[in-house]
Amino acid sequence: MSTLFVNNLNTASGTTITIPTGKKLVGTDANSFIAPNHVIQTQFQQATDRVQKASTSFSGFTGYNITITPTSASSKILITYGYHWYSTGHTANIWRGPLVRLMNVTTDTVLSSDTNGGYGDGQYFTDTTTRMMSYSQHQFLHSPNTTNAITYGLEVASKAGNLIDFNRSDYGRQGYIRLEEIGQ
Q: Do 125 and 93 touch, CB atoms closer than 8 A?
């Protein structure tokens, strides 16, 4: 067996370099092959913790902190997360529902957020006993510009101050957070 040392490959003619049938090009490192717009690595976490929130102030959502270390500063991180929520009865003639924000926990920076003035998940209730539940899924594309480890997480609040029950297993499936490093 011989070893070929080369820094660049190019075609003698045309635009295609072909690997013959039955042959394989094998990379020995986890990141041997990086192509623009392809997933380099994935981190996934099932959020099994139930959180009950009755405050309009944001606080951490346990079970959603997850860390990734980008292989290149030019990479983007595609963040996909989902959660189940249930809204209890409360004051009549008011919007009720969850407020959720995606955080870069490492830098304590809000990346994407529902606000008290916003109307994401929720419903306007005209009585005090109406309840609602739903499963929500969101995505965000982050350009962290670093090769240092980054921790992402969620924070939650209640729009009206009534009890919002997140990821209650007997009401629905559990939430998750997935990070995908996308090569540039």
A: yes
Whether the pTM exceeds 0.85: the reply is no
For tokens 């045309």, name the residue.
14
Tokens representing 85 are 């929520």
> 36-71 pLDDT, tens per residue?
788 999 999 998 788 999 999 999 887 899 999 999
Please list, in sequence order, all residues whose beta carbon lies within 8 angstroms of the beta carbon of residue 47, skipping any fewer than 6 positions away: 61, 63, 64, 83, 167, 174, 175, 176, 177
The helix, strand and coil proportions of the chain, stated in percent and rounded to the nearest 5, come to 0, 40, 60
Beta bridge partners of 136: 83
Residue 27 three-state SS: coil
* Angle (CA) 85 86 89, round 5°: 150
User: What domains are there in the chain, each with its CATH number?
Assistant: 39-182 (2.60.120.1340)
Name the residue type at position 7. Answer: N
